[in-house]
Amino acid sequence: MSEHNEAATNATTPGAGQTGFRPASVAAVPLAIIAETLGVAVPDASQDRGVTGISLNSRAVEAGDLYMALPGASRHGADFVPQAIEAGAVAVVTDDAGARQLALAGEQPVPVLIVAEPRTAVGRLAALIYRSQPDDGGFPTMFGVTGTNGKTTTTYFINSLLSALGKKPGLIGTIEILAGGEPIPSLLTTPESTDVHALLALMRERGLDAASMEVSSHAISFHRVDGVMFDVAGFTNLTQDHLDLHGSMEEYFRTKAELFTAGRARNAVVTVDDQWGRKLAAAADIPVTTLSTKPSEQVNADWKVASITARGLGSEFELSHADGRILRVHTGLPGEFNVANAALATIMVLASGVDEATLQAALDAHDPFTVAVPGRMQLVSTEPASVVDFAHNPDALSRALEAVRSPKAGSRVIVVFGATGQRDQGKRPTMGAIAARLADVVIVSDDDPHDEDAAAIRAEVLQGAYAAREAENLSSEIIESYPRDAAIRMAVDIATGDDTILIAGRGHEVWQEVKGVNLALDDRVELRAALTSKGFSVSTDQRIES
Fold first, then answer.
1. pLDDT value of residue 298
2. Which of 385, 369, 367 is nearest to 377 (CA)?
3. Hey, CA dihedral for 57, 116, 219, 134, is it positive or negative?
4. Which residues form the Mur ligase N-terminal catalytic domain (predicted)?
């Protein structure tokens, strides 16, 4: 990420830099050790200079920092060296281009260390400076969850189960960051590696003994988890998403698979419900525990989900090991995907070394898998059943629509959704077709258009919906409605108390980006307001699932 973009992000990120990511105390690392780590020389007079922090963003630099001046898409981080030095940076790391730029500007008042690819050094330097996972231990047990869908809920489930076991867990994810204090809102699935290592040091400082983290393909591609060693890495599934970044499913898979290597994780739990999971389990070069969450499919796995029965809105089920051992698990959240999420969380915690009997006792005594995950199938009302979910790709939309279908005769599913601009365009007609197949009323609206034309995005989604309806002789009603708040009101206007409304795609997000402008828009707020204005009762039950 360029300094320019990083600055724009951190300028609006609560908790960044001076406002909460860093530990209170950091022992200075001599610049000579940093230079040795990079394999470069440093002037004798500067060898003992102490470094107590690291930043990619000149606006977030604190006194004692190492400033990483990286090349970006439009600006080079070297452009911002004067600001970084003024803020207290004691040294700069940059590439040849940055060094030439600084040389033209004149002699710098701090040492400049030059490496060919400074971006790849950020993670290990952050780990060194913050001592986030020192060799002498004392740091949180790390759980990393990757996959297309289910990452967020699985990390919340892991943390909830760890709490039930009497541990003090932290969390780094899409929605928020928990480090033993007040929640910190998150704008990235995984923060930059400088913040990740600072957070791990902060968790260690505050006495947390475990942490779970969402690990997206972007985080791996952009080196955001470099230098982090996960005790247990977990895999949920792989379906079409982020092909704008990766180009193909094979490349998307290869990026995810990097997490399951000896340099990044010690153990793995891999869900083998799809071909990608089975391929990953075979390719990983670390110990792997396999998990099958679909009882109807004959898949070889160490642990299998079996005997799923309804339990209120949710399910209870067994996890059966190949050697005959059984764990009894329950979740109060509906949908087969929540069974899968709960199963993965259970086996990941087990793989971390927790005693099986102790784990079962916590599952029996507590309700760890009925836990609030903001914007993940959040129940807003019961009559009509009204749900907000983050489903923003074909597989997630399909799962969400199937999960909310009521068995009640005459009940309809009304869905409001769109597609994100400047993202994988290939999934737009596919999502339209899925909605036409699985919903009774399809209202196509806007997600985050970004810099694309919103009408053109809607047209691609609508094309898929109309084509599926015609080719498959479907009876679904298809409507185009915008802006999004008007589409939500339309859904409520046409709903009866027996129907189900699903507002999909944005989940917990509270801003809609249109042509570079952030417009205040929270699907949950709009849905509650529309329901209230029509005289429907709004639920106070904040249990959420995804």
1. 85
2. 385
3. negative
4. 51-127
Rounded CA separation 292/302 (Å): 8
Could you give the C-alpha distances from 389 to 368, 392, 394, 525, in angstroms and in order?
20, 9, 13, 13
pLDDT at site 339: 95
Does 95 have pLDDT greater than 80?
Answer: yes
Asked whether the beta carbons of 418 and 512 are under 8 A apart, the reply is no
Phi (first) and psi of residue 86, to 5 degrees: -60, -35
Cα 145 to chain centroid, rounded: 9
Q: Is the dihedral of CA 70, 76, 77, 81 positive or negative?
A: positive
* Cα distances (Å, whole numbers) of residue 41 to 33, 49, 282, 373, 478: 10, 14, 43, 48, 66
User: What does the alpha-carbon distance between residue 275 and residue 264 come to, in Å, rounded to a whole number?
Assistant: 23
> C-alpha 483: how far from its chain's center?
27
pLDDT of residue 396: 86
Residue 381 exposed, middle or buried by CB count within 10 Å (0-12, 13-18, 19+): buried
Average of pLDDT values for 418-434? 92
Give the alpha-carbon dihedral of 464, 469, 475, 479, to 10 degrees.
Answer: 30
Binding residues for ATP are 147-153
**Residue 182 to residues 155, 175, 212, 342, 461: CA-CA distances in angstroms?**
18, 13, 17, 26, 39
- Which pair of structure tokens corresponds to residue 219? 């985080």
Cα Rg of the chain, angstroms: 24
Note the pLDDT of residue 474: 97
State how far the Cα of 406 lies from the Cα of 404, in Å rounded to an integer: 6
pLDDT in tens, 47-84: 999 999 999 999 999 999 999 999 988 899 999 999 99
Give the H/E segment covering residue 387. strand 385-389
Q: Which residues are part of a known binding site?
A: 56, 58, 147-153, 189-190, 216, 224
pTM value is 0.81
Work out the average pLDDT over 79-104.
97
Check if the beta carbon of residue 376 is closer than 8 Å to that of residue 545: yes
| Contact assessment for residue 237 and residue 148, using Cβ atoms and an 8 Å cutoff | yes
* Angle, CA 60 vertex, CA 58 and CA 62 arms, to 5°: 95
All structural domains of the chain, each given as residue ranges with its CATH number in brackets, are: 29-130 (3.40.1390.10), 141-366 (3.40.1190.10), 378-534 (3.90.190.20)
Q: What is the pLDDT of residues 160-169, one digit of tens each?
A: 999 999 999 9
144, two tokens: 């990393």
